[in-house]
Amino acid sequence: MVDSALTANVRRELSKLQADLDALQTDNLRGQLERLNDQLSNMPTPASQFATHAVGGSMGDMQSTRPKEMSAEVVDSNPYSRLMALQRMGIVKDYQRIRDKTIAVVGVGGVGSVAAEMLTRCGIGRLLLYDYDKVELANMNRLFFRPEQAGMTKTEAAAQTLAGINPDVAIESYTMNITTLQGFDAFKASVTNADGASRVDLILSCVDNYEARMTINQVCLELEQTWMESGVSEDAVSGHIQVVIPGETACFACVPPLVVASGIDERTLKREGVCAASLPTTMGIIAGLLVQNTLKFLLDFGQVTRYLGYSSLTDFFPTMDIKPNPGCSNPLCPKLQAAYQQQYNSEEALAARSAAATAAAGAEAEAATHEDNDWGIEVVSDAGPAASPGAGSAGQQGGLAAGLQYSFPVASMDPYDLKKDAVEDSTADVDDLMSQLQALNTQS
Ligand SMILES: [Zn+2]
């Protein structure tokens, strides 16, 4: 509504300007120019008008229109019917909890803008957007931004689009560079409550440089705030997401990238006229993986993967846990690691884990019993017979996680093969063997 009213307003002003330009005469040029100038300065700009509606602090009018409940009613006019169906399908216990959640998206580029749109469509309660860049036509190979938004700040353009998609979401936009000294303080203040604790449930890092990731890392260590890191490679064909829980998992300083560990300044890596490649597909996939993990984290369903990689050339998705580094270069990190260990090994934590395991086992046993089974359906393991190591199968190989494979062939463990290749006992003494070896060497 606001958008179309604005467009009409701008169009009216433009046609007035055009009429005046047409009537422009050489006499009294100064007077006419002044009038034109006045008209120009009074013209509403779509971005600034919208920002007053959508940007932090002035959300009052929007929030009052937020629906009290997310309806589960299955009608075409309900934007949440298919999300609320997750409850009926038994995936999520209480989907509406998403309305109480606040997410900060740092970096509204190829990954961040798409992640923000997904969260908006999912009905997230509050979204904080951070970026200092402007929309450029060079961004149009990616999703989300539109050519007519070129020149607007990414935060302003994103707030405009997102508010149009779902006015129930409270959007705060922060046009700032978080890596400057001032930016760091402002960023930290914006995610901190008056009592000094974090006011967000999760921070999503969608930035494209090491410095900004280290800034987010520092703020999150100080606030003991969980965050998720994401990245797409410069050649646009691979990416990853990673969960960082201060003290529990590796922080971003625990395992620095090789280029940083080698002491190279990343700013010297950029060359004039050479830019990183980017694909809307890879960006969209990484954004999807990031928000999927976010939803699982926020609404307690499924398994929140600590590290998930994506290599598009081989369609390889490695997962792993990255343990914190006791010798982390950030002094806050080992302190939080010690606190976490102490908590993890406490009596209460042990009892809680044991109770959870018992409950899970009980739930599994209950789920497995069915009163009626008219079709005689049986549940069988899909693990199949254990593949013999070295068989060269594409699946599970001797103790390796699915998807991983050895670079070199693995020796057969078949007892007959082993016997065949075995060195037989010999009665020859060392001198004999030495002369045999020398004879072999001179032959070749
Ligand atoms: Zn660390």
From TrEMBL:
Q: What Gene3D superfamilies would the database entry show?
A: NAD(P)-binding Rossmann-like Domain
The UniProt keywords, alphabetically, are: ATP-binding, Metal-binding, Nucleotide-binding, Ubl conjugation pathway, Zinc
Instruction: Mention any Pfam family matching this sequence.
Output: ThiF
THIF-type NAD/FAD binding fold domain sequence ranges: 80-329
SUPFAM superfamilies in UniProt: Activating enzymes of the ubiquitin-like proteins (SSF69572)
What InterPro entries does its record include? D-isomer_DH_CS1 (IPR029752), ThiF/MoeB/HesA (IPR045886), ThiF_NAD_FAD-bd (IPR000594), Ubiquitin-activating_enz (IPR035985)
Q: Which domain of life is it from?
A: Eukaryota
Family of this protein: Belongs to the ubiquitin-activating E1 family. UBA5 subfamily.
The name this protein carries in UniProt is Ubiquitin-like modifier-activating enzyme 5
